[in-house]
Design a protein that fits this description.
Shape: globular
Keywords: ATP-binding, Cytoplasm, Glycolysis, Kinase, Nucleotide-binding, Transferase
Strand content: 15-25%
Number of strands: 19
CATH topology of the largest domain: Rossmann fold
Radius of gyration: 22 Å
Subcellular location: Cytoplasm
Structural class: alpha/beta
Pathway: Carbohydrate degradation; glycolysis; pyruvate from D-glyceraldehyde 3-phosphate: step 2/5
Bound molecules: adenosine-5'-diphosphate, 1,3-bisphosphoglyceric acid
Catalytic activity: (2R)-3-phosphoglycerate + ATP = (2R)-3-phospho-glyceroyl phosphate + ADP
Largest sheet: 6 strands, parallel
Subunit structure: Monomer.
Distance between the termini: 26 Å
Length: 400
C-alpha cells in the first residue's frame, strides 16, 4: 500500500497521530474548524497508505479528569465529514473503550480518542507520571506521527514522551509550519513588527524577552495590555491582570526604550462593567487607557489606538501577529481585531498570523485567508519558535 515520511511501510500498522484539534466551540457547535481542516491531509495520507489511524488531541484546558464540556465527540464527527469517511470515537483515551476501538480498526480506517487532557498524566510536570501515561498511549500503536504544531512547545505525554516510546516521524503540517516560520527567523525584511494580544498573558509576556532583540516594533493589545498599564501605575479596574508580572513589564518598558524598540500600548480602550455573557447586552464605553474606572474591565483596544496600530503596520515588511486585540467573539469588542487584521492585509511584505483564536478571528470576521502570507495553526508554538527556543515536540523527533 504505502509509506509515510520516514516511517517506512505503514499499511496494516496502527499509527498514533498527535493532532491539534483545539477548536473554538459555542456549546457543542464548532465555530471555526480551521485546525481540523489543517489536520486532515496527514490523517488522510496515512489512511490512504493503509494505516489504522488513531488520532489523539486535546480540547481546552480541562483539569486532568473527564469533563463533558471538553469532549472531542463533536470534533471527531466534523473530522469524519471532512475526511468523507466514518471516524470511530473512543469514549476514553487509553482505557477499555480506546483499546476496543483501536482493535476494531481495519486498514485505512480512522479513530479519535477522547480528550487526552482528561488524564492527569498528560500535562504532569512529574516525568514518571507523564511517562506512565505515555506508556499507555504507546501501547495503542506501532508508530507515532507528530502533527499538532500548536502543541509542539508543550512537554506533554502525547507530544513528547510518546515519541520516545515508538518509531516516530514529523507530520506534514508541522513540517510546513516550520518551513514558513524559518523565513521569519533568518534575516527578516525590516521593519519587522510583532503584534501580541489574546488572553494567555503569562505565556506571551515571556516571549517578549527575546523578541525585544529581534523585532523593530512590538504592538500590544488584548489581555496583555493591562499588566503593562498597571506597571505604568494606572488603574486597570477588573481587567485581566497578572499581578506577579509587573516588575517584568517595567523591565521590558525600560529595555525597549534603551534598545530603540517601539513598544506600543493602547492610548484608549473599550471597557464594560462585566465580561460579555449571554445574560446581558454589552454596554461598551471608550475611555483613555490611563482612566479605566475601578468597576470596569478592558475588552478591546479603542478607536484611536486602532488607527495608531494600523499606522505602525503601514511600512512593515515582515509582520507576525498572535492574539486578538479584544474579545472579538462579541461584535461590540471586535473592532480593534478587525482594524489590525485589515491593516495586515495591506502590508507590502510577509504577514504571518498565528494561533487558534487569531486564525479563527481572521476567518470569522470575514477576511479572505489569501490576503495573509500564512495562517499558522499555532500561536504559542510559533512565538516560541520565533524566539529561538527549543520546542520539545520537535527536538524529541530528532532523537532515535
Ligand atoms: N482584553 C481582553 N480580556 C480578556 N480576554 C481577551 C481580551 N482580549 C482578547 N481576549 C481573548 O483572548 C482569546 C484568545 O487568546 P489566545 O488563546 O491567547 O490567542 P491565540 O489562540 O490566537 O493564541 C480570545 O478568546 C479573546 O476573547
Ligand atoms: O490553542 C493552542 O495554542 P494557541 O492559543 O497558542 O494557538 C494550542 O491548542 C495549545 O493549547 P494550550 O495553550 O492549552 O497548550
Amino acid at each position: 500500500m504505502g509509506e509515510y515520511a520516514g516511517l517506512g511501510e505503514v499499511s496494516g500498522k496502527r499509527v498514533l497521530v498527535r493532532s491539534d484539534l483545539n477548536v473554538p466551540l459555542d456549546g457543542a457547535t464548532i465555530t471555526d474548524d480551521g485546525r481540523i481542516r489543517a489536520s486532515v491531509p496527514t490523517i488522510k495520507a496515512l489512511a490512504d497508505a493503509g494505516a489504522r489511524v488513531v488520532v489523539t488531541a486535546h480540547l481546552g484546558r480541562p483539569k486532568g479528569e473527564p469533563d463533558p464540556a471538553y469532549s472531542l465527540a463533536p470534533v471527531a464527527a466534523r473530522l469524519g465529514d471532512l475526511l468523507g469517511q466514518d471516524v470511530a470515537f473512543a469514549a476514553d483515551t487509553v482505557g477499555e473503550s480506546a483499546q476496543q476501538t483501536v482493535a476494531g480498526l481495519q486498514d485505512g480506517q480512522v479513530a479519535v480518542l477522547e480528550n487526552v487532557r482528561f488524564n492527569a498524566g498528560e500535562t504532569s510536570k512529574d516525568d514518571a507520571e507523564r511517562g506512565a501515561f505515555a506508556d499507555q498511549l504507546a501501547a495503542l500503536a506501532d508508530a507515532f506521527v507528530s502533527d499538532g504544531f500548536g502543541v509542539v512547545h508543550r512537554k506533554q505525554a502525547s507530544v513528547y514522551d510518546v515519541a520516545q516510546r515508538l518509531p516516530h516521524a514529523m507530520g506534514g503540517l508541522v513540517a510546513a509550519e516550520v518551513d514558513v516560520l524559518r523565513r521569519l527567523t533568518v534575516d527578516p525584511e525590516r521593519p519587522y513588527v510583532v503584534v501580541l494580544g489574546g488572553s494567555k498573558v503569562s505565556d506571551k509576556l515571556g516571549v517578549i524577552d527575546n523578541l525585544l532583540g529581534k523585532a523593530d516594533k512590538l504592538v500590544i493589545g488584548g489581555g496583555m495590555v493591562f499588566t503593562f498599564l498597571a506597571a505604568q501605575g494606572h488603574e486597570v479596574g477588573k481587567s485581566l491582570l497578572e499581578a506577579d508580572q509587573l516588575d517584568r513589564c517595567r523591565d521590558y518598558l525600560r529595555r525597549a526604550h534603551d534598545a530603540g524598540v517601539d513598544l506600543l500600548l493602547p492610548s484608549d480602550v473599550v471597557v464594560d462593567t462585566a465580561f460579555p455573557s449571554g445574560d446581558r447586552e454589552p454596554a461598551p464605553a471608550v475611555v483613555p487607557s490611563s482612566e479605566i474606572p475601578a468597576d470596569a474591565l478592558g475588552l478591546d483596544i479603542g478607536p484611536d489606538t486602532a488607527v495608531a496600530y494600523a499606522h505602525a503596520l503601514a511600512d512593515a515588511k515582515t509582520v507576525f501577529w498572535n492574539g486578538p486585540m479584544g474579545v472579538f467573539e462579541v461584535p461590540a469588542f471586535a473592532a480593534g481585531t478587525k482594524a489590525v487584521a485589515a491593516a495586515l492585509t495591506k502590508v507590502n511584505g510577509l504577514t504571518v498570523v498565528g494561533g487558534g483564536d487569531s486564525a479563527a478571528a481572521v476567518r470569522t470576521l470575514g477576511f479572505d485567508e489569501a490576503a495573509f502570507g500564512h495562517i499558522s495553526t499555532g500561536g504559542g508554538a510559533s512565538l516560541e519558535y520565533l524566539e529561538g527556543k527549543e520546542l520539545p515536540g520537535i527536538t524529541v523527533l530528532e532523537e532515535d
